[in-house]
């Protein structure tokens, strides 16, 4: 079943060649196969026989994570099965259900949610069920037995009437194993419990199930990974009793993946006795295998024992076990292996003939998952009477809408059944009539879940009056109305070419069929020339939100295409370009990116369906990225070449709006440039993608220079941002200087400091040069147009003759800047001869944007003030500039500068204590207009301004035994026996060590050594060692670092944790991690630096704003992604501040700290 610790993996689908081979050996696709036992996706089966009826209780699979509904399959012959809904549970997860008949005449049902088991009772095996405990309380919480992770509860009744439960998952950890308990008469508490260690039940992972034969107790269980081919069944035996002692069984594993992979990952078994025979019921992965192992199917095979009672190795079959009771349906299926045609089919893996082969492992699937109807037509071979049509749709727990028609000649059709407004689900879906016909046409018109394929396992046709009276029963679901929608095509069409460079894009008009606009939230992105293309530039803090809502055609498993041009200067782990969902688990997300994350760099769906680039696109180049999904396969194209492909199913939970440049929850932002973006609610064909990529228009700008991006000082070289690339380098000994020139940031030339491009231009016949020049005490906009007729020059929009400017020259393909005294603010070289109207447009834009960046002179909003003796904080006044694209440059009197930064807040690091500094700042807009300097303000870093509490951990101490009295610390959480924690100082470091501990709101808590603090502060520490650092090998889910926490009683399970953490988490390559835990919502972001994390951690509180930082050297700090964050709930209350460690799992791990320091103002 789906576990809380998901592995990331990639499963390869069976090829058409493989299916052809299967056809030759007549195995998985042989008509009439008895395995799978039931049609559809179900897992973790428990088989029971009560009276004359077989019952299969199973996880409802194929919906992203075992999300129900609760259901049971019943049969009297073990071949013909009918599904029935049950009233309980109605929770998000429905995992591994089990039912047993109690000694009191009642039936008891147990099922799992992550690491918890729940129970209920009923008078019948199918409910209605009444919970055993009130208020949704679990009967077995996690680690109810130490060393046993709670899951997969299965019951066993011994011959003496005693009832036992076995449970456990992830029993592979040291000192772990399978739990067993003797149930009391109340059927939810235990008379005694024990652990069967994994040293005996070797490789125990999950799914324990016990049965008894000839006095021997057999404990079967699953090992390996449930999502891949390693999943298998093993067993241990006891000749004493249900609680052991046990010994490892012979012939293990007794059930495993077969040689051709068509029986793949068999496991999570149960056993039923029929007479003297025993049959194992288990699940296996579907064929072809779906990625992630989320589409499992139930199978059965007979157990064979040797003379000593050992289980022989099983040979799993596709044929199954056949009838185990009197056949309920003795009349033939008139549609079996008849000729079939279809409106379409996806490929040979899903051909129409599979709908009439009585094989629950094969199905017909139409060519696409659009809203258009799909149909199959069955030729019965002649005009014959029939009265029953039973249809087994792909998903038994979602309804399908359809019609059934019959015909004598294949031309004239009569209605047999009209279920076009059906809202009932079930399997089989049975329709009755009384006709004579040769042809049957089933047209599927709609599905309950968006984007489902209108697929069918089997169609069965009977002429049997007994059946017509109701032997096969259709299941009934809660009525629900379909939200109608149609695919439209190109929903979003955005192109940055409509904007002039330097334009602040507060809104971007959508030319796609959805219409509307994308509106900036906060500071808007800026238009610029990047690599020769016009593009919107995002700097890790900006986003645009649509005014239109996300249509239903992008919900669920619906198809889509996302097409964008993107550029970045360096790779970034998580780099979201577009998002439109609010889901953050179980394949519900649609976050499309341009990142290097090895799991979800291209698309984040949350789970095994995440999608990555196979080879990250090269930085500092434009790349055309297309991600397309057709409901079965997601494909990634980069520059017209297929980069990756994966098979999957999605369950997209749409948000209200589309977001460009960020995830929906704003936990991550895009850094880079976007030239265009298109979204379709249909998959583009491979040939279409290749054609689009081949028709890409080349960049028109060969040279682009913008002085507003430069910092003050000498300019040794200037990077060309046109598509010609290269650097402008100094041609003489002198270098030009970047400085303010008449209110603009510009490159100033003295006449002996020219810059020459180190790359030659290829076309120097038809081109144009536009540049901004300061000369003779004024700024001018110069355009020189070159063609075969010569050169024309325009100054401030007016044609001048003859050309007079020589500031930019091209000689034999070499371009030179600064031949004369003056200053240049920008240069653009177009690859064509500009026309008069283009020149006018450019000149008008230049004039419009020649103005001071702000109306008033620059003034500090927050004057420079020391927050520690080595850090000074200051903030520039913005004067309502939230929607402007301003930058700020803070300068210390002695010359050290921040350079141009995007935010008005600035912290100067590496300052000396007990010294006075003076700071001023300037403001620059996106066109390079610069304000006058602010006044210089002084600030002192005197140590007398601060309270500094530190611990260098020089005095040895065992905090668990000795407490914290007499130290700088005020309290310690997580020192109880259940935690098995160690907190001690030795060799000048503080060690925190534990296993099975948490700081995610669940008990037991990990160790947390803290101080009580009120008001603003800065706290920092060095992490000197963590488990696995020396070997660079992850040791569990070790999470260590600084924590800020609102005081809460650790025994209070009703109040949510309120805390912030700056930590190191090496697992999953996270590195440094920031956790923001508020009101049950746990937001986490990380740096994806793995073992290359920053070992110094810092948190600063300023009112209700918290800055989370890390550092390599403890001198210069950088904000974590998501920092700063605002927490009004933590602003004016006493806080616990200190050092924590936890493992989120059973593997013991540790952290060593050094150099703790807490600084507050006096």
From TrEMBL:
SMART domains: LamGL. GO terms for biological process: xylan catabolic process. The record marks 152 as: Important for catalytic activity, responsible for pKa modulation of the active site Glu and correct orientation of both the proton donor and substrate. Residues 319-464 form the F5/8 type C domain. The active site is at 44 (proton acceptor), 206 (proton donor). PANTHER family: ENDO-1,4-BETA-XYLANASE, PUTATIVE (AFU_ORTHOLOGUE AFUA_2G04480)-RELATED. This is F5/8 type C domain-containing protein.
